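Limitations

Structures in this collection are predictions, not experimental determinations, and the ligand pose is part of the prediction. Treat each record accordingly. The example that follows, with zinc ion as the small molecule, is included so readers can see exactly what is and is not provided: the inputs are given verbatim, and the output is the predicted complex.
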Amino acid sequence: MGKGTSITCQDCLWTRHFYFGVGFSDCSLESYLEARESPLLPVVKDLIVKHGKGKEEVYDDAVATCRECAAIWETEFIYVMWEDAFHYSYPDQCPTCVSKQLEVLDESLFESMVKEQRLVCPLCKSHQLKISSRMLWD
Ligand SMILES: [Zn+2]
Ligand SMILES: [Zn+2]
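Predicted complex:
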């Protein structure tokens, strides 16, 4: 089962569809990554072997945006905390410009960013992005 939201730039017609999976809350971080065939799986497995299961684990499908270059991409969001000063989080940098100035948005935050015109078109840097369609399937 999944959900999706498309956004379109009213100025240059850049359109992108974003998927948000649902129903991952009752599986482990490792099975979430397995289901996603994520390249992060060996990294996370290695950390768990070394440090044990995290005290706090957050993981979900998300959309990330870069404050430097306005790139917008779909990503797995992962945050694992072992001790107060030791954690692993992903994504940690922009794949386009390597900036670390990222915002990671879940579905509702993503939609409100679009509605409040706080999201910038990666192509023409316009703020005129609109939700153009929504999908739900199982
Ligand atoms: Zn645009
Ligand atoms: Zn960037």
